[in-house]
Each structure stands twice: as C-alpha cells, then as structure tokens.
Amino acid sequence: MQQCKSCGGDSLVKVPEFEKELTVCLDCGEVVSIRFVNPSILKKYINPDYKK
Questions:
Q1: What is the residue-level pLDDT of the chain in tens, covering all 52 positions?
Q2: Which H, E and C letters describe the chain, residue by residue?
C-alpha cells in the first residue's frame, strides 16, 4: 500500500483534475502522485530536434 512521504499516512484518495489524476493524502493534503489519464496528449510537446 502506498504511504504519504510527508506524514506517513495511508489514507489516500484519487482526485480527477482535467487530464490528470492526483493522489492526495487525506491526513495532510500532500499530493503523493500525479498521473496523466491520457498520456498520448503529451506527444504534442515532443521537440523534433531532441535526440536521445
């Protein structure tokens, strides 16, 4: 089970926000993780000059 790194709490809730899903600690309000619901929308930010 995931725990909050700030307070050690394990009461977490997923909160939808536009194209993202936030996981928030109910004990202290810290955002534990941010996940894009549809990561394919990020492709528009790819820099064609960037080389791996």
A1: 788 999 999 999 999 988 899 999 999 999 999 999 988 888 888 877 765 5
A2: CCCCCCCCCCCEEEEEECCEEEEEECCCCCEEEEEECCHHHHHHHCCCCCCC
